[in-house]
Amino acid sequence: MTADRTKRTCLAVILAAGESTRMKSSKSKVLHPVANRPMIAHVVDALARAGIADIALVLGRDAEKVEAAAKNAAVKSTVHIQTERLGTAHAVLAAREAIARGYDDLLVVFGDTPLITEAPLIAAREGLADGADVVVIGFETADPTGYGRLIVENGELLAIREHKDATETERAITYCNGGLMAIDGRKALDLIGRIGNENAKGEYYLTDIVEVARASGGRAIAVAAPEEELTGCNTRAELAVIERLWQQRRRHAMMIEGVSMIAPETVFLSYDTEIGRDATIEPNVVFGPGVTVESGAVIHSFSHLEGAHVGADAEIGPYARLRPGAKLGDGSKVGNFTEIKKAEVGAGAKVNHLSYIGDAFIGAHTNVGAGTITCNYDGINKHITRIGSDAFIGSNTSLVAPVTVGNGAYIASGSVITADVPDDAVAFGRARQENKEGRAVLIRERNQAIKDAKKKDAR
Ligand code: UD1
Ligand code: CA
Questions:
Q1: 251 alpha carbon to ligand 2 midpoint, in Å?
Q2: Which pLDDT belongs to residue 127?
Q3: Alpha helix segments (H runs only) across 158-271
Q4: How far apart are CA 314 and CA 291, in angstroms?
Q5: Is 388 close to ligand 1, i.e. is its CB under 6 Å away?
Q6: Mind listing the domains of the chain with CATH numbers?
Q7: Rounded mean pLDDT of 62-68?
Q8: 160 Cβ closer than 6 Å to some ligand 1 atom
Q9: 192-202: average pLDDT
Q10: 33-34 and 175-184 beta bridge pairing
């Protein structure tokens, strides 16, 4: 054991070779997303935040996809395939090569517990630094059915009894095995190698390591973590529970940091959503991946944002859609039924009603009238619309890209703009209006005569 606990080396083994049968899915369970990110990536992130840089992934189906989903710049990982599924101890041994490199600490975690945070992982390693050989992360629960029970006496963990193997008295225990544990890295292979499979399921249970370690004079303890963090995912219904818990946790953290949410339970965040102080998020707003919102911005109800940046004090919605590449300047406004895609809206500019702005640049303080459309696509290629600052785009304008409108230019309502407009020019791109005096009366009389003739025929 390394004396200085801050210098102890650690390998984390993530078990994710399960068949995911109960998910009824064509892909591995750990690829299913929580907050728009694969479950396994959340686990890797918790490990990285706990300061663990070496990871061994024990995989079965979809190994390549899971490896890609687990990629994280802060960690180095190796992949180990468990070809037969003979239990959690057998699964850890699939990573024998990595463990044999020699670490002070070995952490075993599951790929399907994405709510785990760094705190229990750090606490478990502390237990090893204090001299334990095995530290199990446990939790108290009202309904322990199905979990391994922790048999603790005088602070020592004596054994973990799997539900199927437990006596009635043992089943009454509510302190359970979360499945995650830390093991003395120098002894791990020897201890796990001594685990047998004489139990109800005929599997090699990692949980038996407690009794194996004690039999050779070692020490085992349990550290408690909140039940929520150890929520596992076996079914889609449990996936939805995990999503809800994740959302609750993140919304709460954001509100504590100064973000206002009027009905937080209706706001959906992504794993990477960033919202500044004094921003207000109204009910029923959805944040897809890659959104940053600066301080003081207001996102009105029913808006959907993805891959977008919202500047300070900007106002979005209600019913706005920001798609990838939308960049809204400070104090800008994007109103109802407006879609912005891959476009910059300058500071203080307004696109308030029923518009589509794609592949465009809009200068500061420009006003884009209701129903303006950038015609950015010719069926094969996308083209760019550039609008200068302080311009005025009349309602119902079609801007046929590629096209440029200068600073301070005016576009008459209903125009179809196909040619560039210079600075400070007014562009009319529509037919001139003609009034025919009295013509409406003639048309009415003619139409009435047609109707009367039809009635007569019908008789
Ligand atoms: C396990 C624990 C139980 C604990 C519970 C917490 C054991 C024997 N039991 O039970 O004490 O209360 O977790 O949720 O450890 N896996 C493999 N290969 C295998 C077997 C499992 O990769 O051969 C992976 C699974 O994909 C999963 C994890 O290990 O991620 C746990 O396996 P699972 O069969 O779900 O264990 P439980 O019966 O839930
Ligand atoms: Ca399980």
A1: 27
A2: 98
A3: 168-171, 188-193, 209-215, 236-256
A4: 14
A5: no
A6: 5-230 (3.90.550.10), 240-427 (2.160.10.10)
A7: 97
A8: yes
A9: 95
A10: unpaired
